[in-house]
Design brief:
By secondary structure, this protein is of the alpha+beta class. It has two domains: 95 residues, Ribosomal Protein L25, Chain P (Beta Barrel); 80 residues, RNA Polymerase Alpha Subunit, Chain A, domain 2 (Beta Complex). Helix content is 17%, strand content 37%. The strands form three sheets. The chain has a six-stranded mixed barrel with strand order 1-3-2-6-5-4. A four-stranded mixed sheet has the order 10-7-9-12, with no helix packed on it. It has a three-stranded antiparallel sheet with strand order 8-13-11, with no helix packed on it. The C terminus is likely disordered.
Length: 224
């Protein structure tokens, strides 16, 4: 896996107001931490972060470029991002330090490729999970794993043991997890025909007895 270089610098941590000012100035507040590192509050150019990292899928290694010896040439994974509840803009990022010589556990996205036989026959492809957890060395982290579904007929399923996993990558699971299946087509109930709207009674048409009596009484009143 290639690493992405991003410039970061330490920042002061004087509460929310400082963080808000950083964002107004186009910088993203964050934190760098790990099992062998003391947490370091940092800042990164917002535009650089969004352009190079913000929209990427899966896990990616980030090599930090910095004037600070506390951060320079450290390698990290983007562990978590926080978003504004209204605008949806990223407002904070967590970077987790990794040792390139030690295995780590990460979640990898699944890409379902091909058109299942069962889908051609009217079934519906139903993914059960869209990512799996694996263990590997940081440089062996796959961007995603393809799941070939072309052979699946209605009622068939693929499990984690059916995956074609890159060398050095070991999936983590307790049971043979189902990844995707093809279910039968949904049969919708035909709604009962709506009752016909009663047509207006035409002149000379048959009327109910009660209606006939009312009509006759009305005619007599008019003659009187």
């Amino acid at each position: 896996m290639e690493t992405i270089e991003i410039h970061m610098e330490p920042r002061e941590t004087d509460g929310k107001q400082k963080a808000k000012r950083l964002r107004r100035e186009g910088r993203l507040p964050g934190i760098f931490y790990g099992p062998k590192a003391q947490p370091i509050s940092l800042q990164v150019d917002m535009k650089e972060f969004v352009t190079r990292v913000g929209g990427l899928e899966g896990s990616h290694l980030i090599r930090i470029k910095s004037a600070s010896p506390l951060l320079a040439d450290k390698v990290a994974l983007l562990k978590e991002m926080q978003f504004h509840p209204i605008t949806g803009r990223v407002i904070h990022a967590d970077f987790y330090e990794v040792d390139l010589t030690e295995k780590i556990q990460v979640n990898i996205p699944l890409h379902f490729v091909g058109k299942a036989v069962g889908v051609v026959r009217g079934g519906i492809l139903q993914p059960i999970v869209r990512e799996i957890e694996v263990e590997c060395l940081p440089m062996d982290i796959p961007e995603y794993i393809n799941v070939e579904v072309s052979s699946l007929d209605i009622g068939d399923a693929l499990h984690v043991t059916d995956l074609s996993i890159p060398a050095g990558v070991v999936p983590i699971y307790e049971t043979n997890l189902t990844l995707v299946t093809v279910v039968p087509p949904t049969v919708e109930e035909v709604p009962a025909a709506a009752a016909p709207v009663a047509a207006e009674v035409a002149e000379g048409a048959e009327v109910a007895p009660g209606e006939k009596e009312e009509k006759e009484e009305g005619e007599e009143d008019e003659k009187a």
